[in-house]
Amino acid sequence: MTTRPTARSPRPSAVRRGPTVRRRAARTGQYLALLGYLVFLAFPLLWLVSTAFKPPRELASLHPGWIPDHPTLDNFRQAFDEQPLLRSAGNSLIASLAAAAITVVIATPMAYVMARHHRSPLSRAATGWIVVSQAFPFVLVIIPLFLVLKEVRLIDSLSGLIMVYVVWSLPFALWMLAGYARAVPRELEEAAAVDGASRLRTLISVTMPLLAPGIVATALFAFITAWNEFFFALVLLKSPQKQTMPVILTHFIGTEGVADLGPLAAASLLATLPSLVLFAVIQRRITSGTLAGAVKH
Amino acid sequence: MRRRTLLAASAAGTLSAAGTLLSACAPGRRRASDGRITLRFQSLAWQQESIEANKQLVAEWNEAHPDIRVDYVQGSWDSVHDQLLTSFEGGEAPDIIHDATDDLADFAYGGYLADLTDLLPRRLKDEIPPQTWQTATFGGAVHGVPFLQEPRVLIANRALLERSRVRIPTPERPWSWGEFEDAAKELTRDGTYGVAWPLKEPVSATLNLSLSTGGKVFHRGADGKVTVRFDAADQRVPRVIHDQLGGDRSAARTTLGMGGSDTLPGFFGGKYAMVPLGFSYRQQIVQQAPKGFAWTVLPSPAGPGGDQRQGVSPQTLSIAADSPYQREAARFIDFFLRPPHMVRLARGDWMLPTGLTALRDPALHTRRHGWATGAALAGRLRPAPAQSVRGYPEWKDKVATPALQEYYSGAIGMRELRERLVEDGNLVLARYQR
Description:
Chain A is an all-alpha fold. In chain A, helix 8 runs antiparallel to helix 9. In chain B, strand 1, helix 2 and strand 2 form a beta-alpha-beta unit. Classes of the chains: A mainly alpha, B alpha/beta.
């Protein structure tokens, strides 16, 4: 026996269509919002690219266009002629890579300990101190720091600068990495122990691979922090041969904020490239880490 | 400013502990075993021609003086105050320091800069007029050699100017402020504003131009203490700007938050007939103006009786107080600022030299790019009113900038502007003068 749908009760297809349409509309809205956000994020970079290739007369146009009418490489030529961009990029790269590597090496075991003992008073105190340390502005610490580095003869040296970068990014790196470490299920380590793995073996073979995305993200954070840092580099490095990229970029800026816009944009574009490349290379590593299915319940 | 205040506080805290330690480090530094010494010269030159001129002069010195080598270090205007303060505190300051007079007061009063009175040769002292020396004189001691200065001028669209019925002013017959208002009105038509005031940083522009109407704002009493006043003479220029923006609308309101460079596209596009700018902006105009765009340089308006005085904060060369080679540094400055060299530096920066001989150089009197107009104004330049006032940076950032911005935008009237500048301002200055 079959029952005919009544006039009041909607047909099954109609029941499905309503939520489907709504779902599609919602998804379209989400995509539009995401697209808008991406455009918002990309705008400065696209404008930078556009500016870097514009001749001076187009830079001062009342109706600037996205695509230069007469694209030129003169801005890049001038930037390279006026300032030692390659040398400064090399200095920045050394400082940033070293700072990122050292930060990760120090932060990883500390973060693991903090994550596994996060209820202990010591761990809580450490977390509190990390939060407080983030509140210090650069200018409050710069003079004592300068004096300390001077005492140990690390003024005007990339080693001194790297040390400062490590110290400066370590608290946040620690905090960040501790969050990742907490997400690694303790049960996995216990399972490894039951299977006879030593503590060290468990850490190397079980915990570290799962922590890898967090380590990569933290390294990226430390790298970008150091790569973009200006004030410490300005104050601590004296020799022109040791200056980093952000310091060199300010040489295109004059009094009252007047800037040599074309060469500044060209140099800034070059300065953003390493971060972008690095991010493109390792972003897969950040997102690939997943714990799904790692634990049997 | 907040950064500067924090840094000053931090500096004060560590100064006493560091003092003895650092003084021990100074002697003998940078002297090679053969007796050759090396001086560090931090330059803030940033334009291509200017950097070239600086580097060439340093190279010429090094060639002629093998025993006193100068290392050229490129600094930057951005954060120079904080960078220098840290360097002074750490005993690592460059021997020869390029800066501007309005940034020197803190360093001079803090004892970081050498007194140059007995270090400089008579030739250099006589080259620079007394009123210019005043800009770098603090507490009776000279702490910098002013060598480049920049008057404010009106850069005008020549075609629009010639098409109108306004009289074209010259340094000999400048506009009065009233004539300037009339000219701006006359030039306002068909979507073009007579004038665009770039007022992102309104304080120095307002104060420096107000000298022509007798404005002083800062008054030093017999006890040496400075107080703020904002009398009729001080109010004349702000009133003109305010009325142009909100009254007859001969000035574009959209430029209120702009810096000088931001107004150039509108200027080239015929949106504004005149833009009050620093003299050095001509370099950007030459570089960026569309082909065939005709422009000219006019003197700023004059006050009663043709008073064309205006305040400036010249660029300076100073010597660090803890430099062990002050005499050698002074010799370098003397060489660096010889008249022909000053001309090279001035042309590189599109500014005016302070030296009288350099100012007479024919290269600076050509009508091309308005050099002659600027050179004719040089004798009317005076120390900026706030030059040696301690606490001025805080007054400027915390009190005057927001108050003037609100006044120009029409949010507050002259009465409230006056109250804020004077009452809040005097509270700020009092803290520095206790």
